[in-house]
Specification:
Blueprint (H helix, E strand, L loop, with lengths): L1 H27 L12 H5 L4 H7 L4 H4 L1 H21 L10 H7 L1
Length: 104
């Protein structure tokens, strides 16, 4: 009889702890996970920080101002012209290193 009473006592204790866990989860807003499987509750609880990260970086004037883009393009073309005068510019189409290799 004591073996049956011990089993019953364990069953009641398990039910009481399970009920207490459910009540605790309901009161404190915790996610109940009795099986112990992986869940994304930790990630979903986190605060979303994308807007704060976007606000940290300053506004990029280059994207919207055509004068800035035109000045940069002018600087690029002048640098390219200077390189071409020294013979360091890019080769004409079809006269690069790969084309020379292919023709040999």
């Amino acid at each position: 009889m004591s073996a049956a009473a011990g089993g019953l006592r364990r069953l009641l204790a398990a039910a009481a702890t399970a009920g207490a866990a459910e009540a605790r989860a309901a009161i404190f807003g915790h996610a109940l996970n009795p099986t112990g499987k992986r869940a994304a509750t930790k990630l979903l609880r986190k605060k979303i920080i994308g807007d704060q990260v976007a606000q940290w970086y300053p506004y990029d004037i280059k994207r919207d101002d055509p004068l800035v883009m035109a000045r940069e393009e002018k600087e690029r073309l002048s640098k390219l012209e200077m390189l071409k005068r020294r013979g360091k510019g890019p080769p004409k189409k079809g006269q690069g290193r790969r084309a020379v290799k292919r023709s040999k």
